[in-house]
Amino acid sequence: MPCAHQAIANLIYRYAECVDNADFAGIRDLFAGAAFTGSGGTLHGGDAIARMFEKTVIVHEDGTLRTKHVTSNVAIEVDETAGTATSKAYYTVLQAAPGLPLQPIACGTYHDTFEVHEGHWRFTERRITMDLAGDVTHHLTHPEYLPAHVRPTS
């Protein structure tokens, strides 16, 4: 097993890859034993979390979301004895789609917890806060999926 910090970082980065590629099965597997809290409340288990993504994001003709989730400022704290860890990281979502030039569309913070399960690190919880939002009309199926404090006013 890779060192704890690297294994946990790999999970954080794998999430970005799964979302960008509309890999809903991968999202399901990542969060199989986890809770996921975003603007729509808290979901439990990989199936519910994957269904939420399938419902809320737009998959483009190339089979992706036409996004890149850039994860930065990753801080990981590990308790090897307990087999648990926490992390905090910033995210910036970039998107380019037909009719939408490359631009940031969202940024915020991931607050994660992890545990060792059957010899491997896994997510136990992800809480997402969104601090800033841009044009998500090519990303989300409905703007009400944005947290109220970042929704555009018309």
Automatic annotation (TrEMBL):
Q: Provide the protein name.
A: Nuclear transport factor 2 family protein
What highest taxon heads this organism's lineage?
Bacteria
Name the InterPro entries on file.
NTF2-like_dom_sf (IPR032710), SnoaL-like (IPR037401)
Q: Which organism is it from?
A: Actinomadura bangladeshensis
> SnoaL-like domain: which residues?
5-127
| Gene3D superfamilies in the cross-refs | 3.10.450.50
Query: A Pfam family for this UniProt protein?
Result: SnoaL_4
Q: Which CDD domains match?
A: NTF2_like (cd00531)
